[in-house]
Amino acid sequence: MDSVLSPDFRPTQGKGAATVLERIGNTPLAHLEGVWCKLEFLNPSGSIKARIAKHIIERAEEAGQLRPGDTIVEASSGNTGNAMAMVAAVKGYRMLVVQPVGISSERLALSRALGAEVMEVGDFHVNEALARAQELGETEGYFCPRQFASEWNVEENRTWLGPEILHQLPEGAVPDAVVAGIGTGGTLVGLGQAFRAVNPDCLVVGVEPTESRTIATGAVGRHQIEGISDGFVPQILQDHRDEVDYLLAVPSAEAVSEMRRIAQQHGCFVGPSSGAHLLAAKKLQRDRPELKTVVTLFCDGGEKYFSEHFLSAAVQGSESGG
Ligand code: PMP
């Protein structure tokens, strides 16, 4: 019998069963308005954090720090909680997400939908949730991945996300700069290490909300770029401060309007940090036109911000006859 498969058929999975975790990574690298944007919101669980969740959990299993029957407990502004809940569900661990009160209800609901228990601790910033998760992590039968401090976070970005981007850039192109907001700092530091291995002059540029320039000035404030500037200088950044060249500030309101524009003009339904990242990357290119290959990331999807930013806008749109 002739094969039913056309010659153009390109399988993406080998024979046999896979899990949803196989979908992590291999996201597209788009070129938007002169900036290379890694479309990380397309990862399962809806963010870049799927990568560190899988990597840190598997590293901890190998190291014997995480054993069958254990509970994973992690502090998160939401995306890492969602990602760890997904990995824990696949691998059969109990998951406890500790997150601040009053951050996106979508992320809280998604962690619960993925089978995690969510404990709300502290107000807006992640400090108190972090302390509680670390304390619980000391308990027998609990494992705390400590995303804000773990070198496995940096390692994932250096050895997986970074090489993937290098592979996707056009022949002969190497990054002249990487621009990323700082939550744990793992993305920025890990990508900086990966890119400097091929271009030692690659600039490593962090992004903070103008309202909360914690790393640049020590100021802590409320802002709308959730996922970055969590209220403290993360351990990873303390350990690798000399690897970051400088910090740009983006006002929350501009990040949010850029987020809306990205959806409407590029079809990428992303969250506020993606708006901040693209604005900061374009500013860097305007200020330093010699930087040809600038890389940034669209870290999470707009679905995580429906109640904060989109449903109310839709209501306003229809009220004004739109
Ligand atoms: N953007 C979003 C939406 C995030 O959730 C995070 C991580 N919390 C970041 C950016 C920053 O990534 P990192 O933790 O690697 O600094």
TrEMBL record:
Keywords: Pyridoxal phosphate. The keyword DNA damage does not apply. Residues 22-300 form the Tryptophan synthase beta chain-like PALP domain. It catalyses: O-acetyl-L-serine + hydrogen sulfide = L-cysteine + acetate. Its cofactor is pyridoxal 5'-phosphate. PANTHER family: CYSTATHIONINE BETA-SYNTHASE. This is cysteine synthase. The lineage of its organism: Bacteria, Pseudomonadati, Pseudomonadota, Gammaproteobacteria, Thiohalorhabdales.
